[in-house]
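Session log. Operator J.P. requested a structure for one protein chain; no other inputs attached. Running the standard single-chain path with token output.
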Amino acid sequence: MDLRKYKLYILDYDGCLIDSLPMWRDSASSYIRYLGYTPKEDLDERIPIFTDLYCAELIKEEYHLPMTIDEIMKGIDEYVDYMYPRVPLKKGSLDILSKLKSLNKIIVVLSASGNHILDLSMRALGIKEYFNDVISVYNHKTLSKGNGSAMEYVRLKYNISKEDILMIDDSLSNVIGAKEYGIDCISIYDEYSSKNKEEMLKSNSMAYMKMEELAKVL
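Structure written below.
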């Protein structure tokens, strides 16, 4: 398995390059603690999308917050801006970026997170210079990794054939999307996104490993 033969590398960000899924998973309860309240045990289970209107309405009603819905949503955004840049890189991520950069490969981040927080994180970690491009499917509403449209967007932008692209991702839906689109993919172990999905990740990618393991074979 020659992982250096590709010209363009598409890397996921959350759960792949950085260890952010614990933050997103527990974000609602963490925010309530940040405000000085004790969160209910099932709060994070009931708020799978942290920054949406439902979250703000639920928090205001259950915790009787002395703020408007708009103020709560703004406060959530400010909390994310505060916490996200503090999330560390996964072990092995910097080695992978350094190796790819030294080989003059095209490195593209394709992420579900917004451009704003991606920029905050990359600047805080000092890694922005490693990437040729940072593309947020959150900000590009017509793009999806699950149906391959995001990968096609990248391929056309750089005018590269599918066989010259390697995708590195921890999400099963994205891994399956890469397989169906027709590009090679390495699926990455993550304690949270990989739970109960290990066999599916293995069967739908060319290899399944931790970032630190990938750094050793790249």
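Operator note: DSSP finds eleven helices and six strands in the chain.
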